[in-house]
Amino acid sequence: xxRRERGVTLxxxxxxxxxxxxxxxxxxxxxxxxxxxxxxSQERASLQQHTTVVMSQIARAIRGANRIEVTGANAFxxxxxxxxxxxxxxxxxxxxxxxxxxxxxxxxxxDCTRFTVAANSDTTSVTLDLEFTTADSVTLSKLDxxxxxxxxxxx
Length: 155
Known about the structure:
Order of helices and strands: HEEEEEEEEE
Structural class: alpha+beta
Number of domains: 1
Number of helices: 1
Largest sheet: 6 strands, mixed
Helix content: 25-40%
Strand content: 35-45%
Number of strands: 9
Strand order of the largest sheet: 5-4-3-2-1-9
Shape: rod-shaped
Oligomer: single chain
C-alpha cells in the first residue's frame, strides 16, 4: 500500500521562492518608477506655477506703468506718468546661477535660463520670453505679449 506523502520537495520550495522573488522584484520596480514619475510631475507643476506667477507679476507691472524702456535683450525699466523709475527687470548671472530680478531682488529661486524682451513700437507692447530650469533639469518656457495701458514706449 502506498503512503500519501504530504508537503513539498526542496526543489518545489526553491521554485516557489524564486517565482515569488521575481514577482516582488517586478512590483518593487513598478512602485519606484511610479514614484519617480510622480515626483517629476509635481516638480513640473510647481515650475509651471512659479513661471506663471513671475510672468503675471511682470505683466501687472508693465500694464501699470506709463513708459517702458528696453535697455537690452534681457532687461527693461518701467516709469510712471512723471517719469520716475518704478521698476527694473533684468537677467543677472551670479554664484547662484542665472536669476531674473525685479529691482535687484530675485523673483524666483530658480535658474532663469532665458529671459528676452522684444519691443513692438507699433502697438506699444513687449513680448516676453521666459524660461526657468529646476535643479533636476526640469525646464519650462512661457511666451507672452503685454501691452502698456498708457501707450508710451521707448527703446
